[in-house]
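agent: user wants the structure for Tyrosine-type recombinase/integrase from Bradyrhizobium hipponense. delegating to structure tool.
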Amino acid sequence: MPGKLKPLDVEREIRPGKYPDGDGLYLIVASVTSKNWNYRYWKDGKQRWLGLGAVKDVSLKDARLARDAARLRVKGDRGTPGVDIVQEKRAAREEAKAIEIKVTLPTFEQCAEIYIRERWPNWSKKHRAQWPSSLKRYAYATIGKLTIPEIKPSHIYELLRPIWVEKRETANRVRGRIETIIAKNVDVDDRDFRNPAELTKQLREKLPRRPKRVVQHHPALPYAEAPQFLIDLSAASGIAALMLRFLIFTACRTNEVVDARWSEIDRPSSIWKIPGDRMKMNQDHVVPLSEPALAILDKIRDGSQGELIFAKPDGGMFSENAMLAVLDRLGYSHVTVHGFRSTFATWAEECTDYPDGVREAALAHKYKSETTAAYQRGQKLEKRRVLMKDWAQFLAGSNIIHFGEEG
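agent: tool returned. relaying C-alpha cells verbatim.
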C-alpha cells in the first residue's frame, strides 16, 4: 500500500508539525532546517517514537524500508517475541553510561581510604583501629568495588543482615560509617539524592528483628565502701593503681583516663580539658581537678618522659584491662572500673543536694535539650568543682559533706 507522502511534499513542506505517511511513519517538521523521520508504535500499552534519521540523510523510500524493518522487530516473527526498540536503545545508552562512570569514578573502597587518610591525624587510637578494620571486614566484600552511584539499599541490607542481631553495636557503626563516606562523595546540591545507607523504615523492617535490649549495668562498688577501698588502693604500687585512683577522683570513663595527655592539663586552673574526639558525645569536656587528683599528677610528673600521663615503663599506653588487674589483685574482682562512675553518681544523688544538671555535667552525659546542654557546659564548671571537692572529702573518710546550692 503506497504511502500518503510524495517526495516533493517532503522537500517542500516547511510548516512545523507531524505528517503521517502510513503504518506509523511520520515526517516531523520542527523548522525549515529540521526535518526528521519517526516511526510511532505501541508496546505494552505505551506509545513510543523511534527516530529513523534526518530527511537530508534518509530518503522517503529508505524511511519506509526502515519503518518496515522496525515493525517486524516490534511485532516479532515465527515465535520470536517482539522487542521495545526505544527501550532497548535507552538501556544500551544507560549501560554505556554506567561503564563510563565506572571507569572515571572511584570505588567505595577508594573513597573510604581517602576519607580515613584525611582524618587520620585528628583521630584517636580507637578510631584509627576501628574504621579501617570494620569496613574491610564487613563492607568491602559487598560494596568495595562499586562506585557510589552503583550502591543500592539492597547492598546495605546484604552486608548488615548477618551481623544486625549478633553484633548490634558493630552493625550500627558500620552502617553509620558507610553513610558518612557516601555523603562525603555526592553533590551537596543534588536534591534528588537519597543515601542508600540511611536507616530508612524500609531497611529497618527488612532487617532481622532485634530482641529488646536488656540494659546491663556495670557492677559498681556501693559508695559506703568507697572510702575503705581508697585506703586499700593507696597501698597498691604501680602506675595502673595511680591511674585507677585518678579515674575515681575525676569520675571519668576508662578510655578517657588511659589516653590522658599532659597537654590537656591546665595546672594553674586545676582543670583537665579532654578534646571532643576522645569523648563519647564528641564534645569537649572540662574536668575540675580536686587536690587529691592534682597530687596524683604531681607525683607522676616527676618521672614522666612523654606526652602520655599514665604510660607504661616503655612509654606505651596501658590497655583498658590494666585497672581491672589492680582490682583483681586487691580482691575487688566483683566490681568493674566503669562501675565507679555509678558509685559516684549514686553518692551524689543520695548524699548531696546538687541539682541534676550539675551531677550529669560531671559525668559528661548527653542532654536531650541542646539548649540545656549549652547552659550546663557554660555555667556549671565552678559548681562541679565544689562537687568534686566534696567527693574527694567523702573518699577521704570525711563526714562533712557540702550540699550544693539549687539552680
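agent: one observation worth passing along. The longest helix spans residues 85-104.
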